[in-house]
């Protein structure tokens, strides 16, 4: 198994613009309680990784934004897709007519896995439209658009690693090197509903404070390895309660090591030092992989 290669954010193909949209992993995820609006307060450290969807922007044949979805995994082509929502919202907020624009979204990352691909696709649409039409949108406007569309979308406009609080929209830059770390992402043959997982979430202030102290101590030491070893995700228990098959899958794949859950699931991952890659390949245990595509070796994205 070879690691997936890093890609540049933009690729130009003649008059078309391709924007790559990376997946993310949650290196820790804390639940800090519930907000008055019903959303949960989170505190999470996220990193983009070298597994990408892509958006191709090119001139359309008629006025308006047209979305086509291709690739290994399904995505909707109507306005339930955040890519199309982002395009329409941008031009509406700018008071401009929709241009002749065709967007082709190639889905290489499955949705419903805790890898943030829909949010990343949305951020790529914001960046791509800004770049393709030379709109020169301000930082504030871009983040306003992102915030209207999803809690994780602002993260994908920045990066490559940020601590995200609030609903996930408040970003804090973190000085942490992941250059020597690789991740193996495991995908079972089912997906998880974020809403369902959160519905099983029972907040414990004591548990939150203990885990917060542990991750803050690891951050103070600047140790990516210690953070990854902690594997703190307060949605893991709710995920296992909502989807017992997720706990069973994690136990089958752990190879003697605890796997970490990304987001609300169902993707799990383990980390290891890049200088131990060959040893990892020899000892890797592959079991029970099916529809969603098994595992991927990735590194932290560089942008």
UniProtKB/TrEMBL annotation:
Record domain GHMP kinase N-terminal: where: 81-157
Active-site residues per Swiss-Prot or TrEMBL entry: 24, 152
Alphabetical list of InterPro entries matching this protein: GHMP_kinase_C_sf, GHMP_kinase_N_dom, IspE, Ribosomal_Su5_D2-typ_SF, Ribsml_uS5_D2-typ_fold_subgr
Keyword Hydrolase annotated: no
Enzymatic class: transferase
Gene3D superfamilies, alphabetized: 3.30.230.10, GHMP kinase, C-terminal domain
Matching Pfam families: GHMP_kinases_N
GO biological process terms held by the UniProt record: isopentenyl diphosphate biosynthetic process, methylerythritol 4-phosphate pathway; terpenoid biosynthetic process
Record keywords: ATP-binding, Isoprene biosynthesis, Kinase, Nucleotide-binding, Transferase
Alphabetical list of PANTHER family matching this protein: 4-DIPHOSPHOCYTIDYL-2-C-METHYL-D-ERYTHRITOL KINASE, CHLOROPLASTIC (PTHR43527:SF2)
Family: Belongs to the GHMP kinase family. IspE subfamily.
Record protein name field: 4-diphosphocytidyl-2-C-methyl-D-erythritol kinase
């Amino acid at each position: 198994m070879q690691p997936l290669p890093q890609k540049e954010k933009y690729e130009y193909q003649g008059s078309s613009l391709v924007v790559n949209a990376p997946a993310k992993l949650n290196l820790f995820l804390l639940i800090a309680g519930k907000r008055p609006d019903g959303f949960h307060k989170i505190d999470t450290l996220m990193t983009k990784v070298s597994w990408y969807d892509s958006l191709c922007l090119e001139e359309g044949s008629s006025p308006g934004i047209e979305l086509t979805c291709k690739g290994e995994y399904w995505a909707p082509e109507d306005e339930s897709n955040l890519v199309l929502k982002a395009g329409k919202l941008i031009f509406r907020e700018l008071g401009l007519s929709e241009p002749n624009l065709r967007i082709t979204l190639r889905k290489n990352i499955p949705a419903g896995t805790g890898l943030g691909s829909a949010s990343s696709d949305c951020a790529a649409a914001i960046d791509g439209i800004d770049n393709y039409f030379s709109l020169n949108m301000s930082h504030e406007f871009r983040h306003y658009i992102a915030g209207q569309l999803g809690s994780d979308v602002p993260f994908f406009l920045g990066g490559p690693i940020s601590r995200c609080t609030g609903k996930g929209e408040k970003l804090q830059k973190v000085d942490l090197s992941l250059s020597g770390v690789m991740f193996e992402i495991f995908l079972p043959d089912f997906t998880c509903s974020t809403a369902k997982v959160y519905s099983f979430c029972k907040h414990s202030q004591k548990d939150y404070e203990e885990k917060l102290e542990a991750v803050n101590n690891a951050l103070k030491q600047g140790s990516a390895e210690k953070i990854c070893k902690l594997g703190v995700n307060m949605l893991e228990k709710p995920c296992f309660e909502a989807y017992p098959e997720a706990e069973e899958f994690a136990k089958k794949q752990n190879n003697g090591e605890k796997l970490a859950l990304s987001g609300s699931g169902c993707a799990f991952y383990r980390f290891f030092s890049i200088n131990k890659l060959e040893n990892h390949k020899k000892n890797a245990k592959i079991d029970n992989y099916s529809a969603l595509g098994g595992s991927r070796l990735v590194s932290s994205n560089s942008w």
